[in-house]
Design a protein that fits this description.
The chain is of the alpha/beta class and 508 residues long. It is built from 15 helices and 11 strands. The strands form 2 sheets. It has a 6-stranded parallel β-sheet with strand order 2-1-3-4-5-6. Strands 8-7-9-10-11 form a 5-stranded parallel β-sheet, with helices on both faces. It starts with a helix and ends with a helix.
Length: 508
């Protein structure tokens, strides 16, 4: 009997040891499996901004139109801009492998930003470039022929064109360009929702009404856009706060901006926006596309640039631009200063190119708005910018120190007798050379091109948008705290006239 009890005890002990061993093995396997799952679904890593690449690694392009590329394209289906139904549930995410077995370079799991883009009717984007859709297509076959963007001053505000091209190409197999953002086809998986309305081009080309019509095409498109966006589930889900809308020209989106104010705007400055509609907290400042040609292989030094200080442009401006007139009278008699009226007409661009390339310092003075394209022309010329604009906001300033390659002067100081010219004359050759070298190092951050390249203007804008995403998520998550106890998530568009009091809540 004792022997049986002993055997039973021994057997029970062995069983417990076996169970413990199996439990430990299972636990280890379970932990490792979850480790790999979490690793594969972790958040994308942003680009390290501690060191920017030198200008040698950042290719520049001519200011002309991009060249065509000969490849095959898969077109998305046409979607009516006023259609209220959403087809996101029928869409699929981009995968790492294409249908022909080639790896897609824009890896869904590695990009900084996942973007859902509305398939707006072509009248909102490439149709404004006189592109004619065929066979119900929404988008042109940009691997075969890229619709041309108009030149001249239109190019200054062409960010809408470059960002849209970059998103469309993000799904191409074996894409050669850089990839900070990728287009996804399920809006619930996106960080932001991109609205491909070429608003600056719409203003430049179609802001004047034609008889017998009382309203311009630009006005009608904005009206259609507001109706479309506010009927979408994506807008209702977030109240529009995760939507990205381009309004780079100061006069673009004049009618719609007051109704779409919760969205993230991509702007050139805040000069014509009240602070409760656009502000540095929620919106992104993007550079102008410079009009003059980049100074390629610039070996000119301090002594090779005979002009000390250069400005050519409109002198008599309204609003904050009064300082231009004041400075003209203060500087016009200085022998090594070029301060004259100029425009893009006739030989204006070539004249400005020659002038900036031959100057040590280039004035960037506030005009009708705080910003101007002149700053980015100066950067492309490696002409040290002298910024006189108290309210200016600068692209990427959260990651870039402009004081390393720009001179900032308060307006109140600049208009003092001899203050500005004495300040510039006292900058040493060594200090100017240091800033000149820095300009050559960072110039690529302001280049718009297709295909986009690492840390060029297109990629830098996407990265700036991605840095806004955590704040958007915070606001949305806080607004949804009581969604299960009677308080609904943002689900309906509220006209600006009835919702001014809500703006403070959105800023929490």
């Amino acid at each position: 009997m004792k022997m049986a009890e002993k055997n039973s005890h021994s057997s029970g002990s062995i069983s417990r040891k076996s169970l413990i061993f199996l439990f430990m093995v299972s636990t280890v396997v379970f932990i490792f499996s979850w480790f790999f799952v979490l690793r594969s679904t972790g958040p994308p890593q942003l680009i390290d901004y501690t060191s920017f690449p030198s200008s040698k690694n950042l290719a520049t392009i001519d200011n002309g139109n991009p060249q065509s590329r000969n490849q095959n394209d898969v077109q998305p289906s046409m979607r009516d801009p006023l259609e209220t139904t959403s087809d996101s549930s029928e869409s699929t995410l981009i995968t790492s492998d294409s249908s022909d077995g080639n790896v897609v370079s824009c890896d869904y799991n590695k990009v900084a930003l996942k973007v859902f883009m509305y398939d707006l009717h072509p009248e909102f984007h490439f149709g404004l470039l006189d592109w004619k859709p065929e066979g119900g297509k929404v988008w042109p076959d940009i691997q075969t022929k890229i619709p041309d963007y108009p030149g001249g001053l239109n190019l200054q505000h062409s960010i809408e064109y470059w960002l849209t091209l970059d998103l469309l190409s993000s799904n191409f197999p074996n894409r050669n360009g850089a990839c900070s953002a990728v287009r996804v086809f399920n809006s619930s998986e996106a960080d932001v929702v991109f609205v491909p309305f070429f608003s600056s081009l719409s203003y430049n080309r179609y802001s004047k009404s034609k008889s017998p019509h009382k309203k311009s095409v630009n006005y009608l498109l904005q009206d259609k856009l507001v109706k479309f966006l506010t009927e979408q589930e994506e807008w209702k889900r977030s109240g529009g706060r995760d939507h990205v809308i381009m309004a780079h020209h100061p006069n673009s989106m004049l009618e719609a901006r007051m109704k779409l104010w919760p969205a993230m705007f991509i702007l050139s400055d805040f000069g014509r926006y009240p602070p409760n509609i656009a502000n540095v907290e929620k919106d992104v400042i993007a550079p102008y596309k410079h009009v003059i040609r980049t100074f390629v292989d610039d070996s000119s030094g301090f002594d090779d640039r005979p002009t000390l200080l250069y400005f050519q442009g409109a002198i008599y401006r309204k609003d904050g631009g009064f300082v231009r007139q004041e400075l003209f009278y203060l500087l016009k008699d200085e022998k090594d200063v070029h301060f004259s009226f100029g425009s893009v007409q006739k030989d204006g661009v070539h004249s400005a190119t020659r002038g900036m390339h031959a100057s040590k310092f280039c004035l960037n003075i506030a005009g009708d708005t705080p910003s101007s394209n002149r700053l980015f022309d100066a950067i492309a010329s490696h002409c040290v910018p002298v910024i006189i604009s108290d309210e200016i906001e600068l692209p990427y300033e959260d990651v870039l120190d402009y004081s390393e390659f720009c001179i900032f002067v308060r307006t109140s100081d600049a208009i003092k007798e001899k203050f500005l010219i004495n300040l510039i004359r006292n900058i040493s050759k060594d200090e100017w050379t240091r800033m000149w070298n820095k300009l050559k190092e960072i110039e690529g951050l302001y280049e718009f091109q297709y295909p986009s390249k690492e840390n060029d203007a297109v990629q830098m804008i996407w990265q700036a948008v991605s840095r806004k995403v955590p704040a958007i998520r915070l606001k949305l998550h806080k607004s949804w705290r009581f969604s299960l106890t009677g308080t609904k998530r943002p689900s309906a568009f509220v006209p600006w006239s009835k919702s001014k009091h809500l703006f403070r809540e959105l800023r929490v």
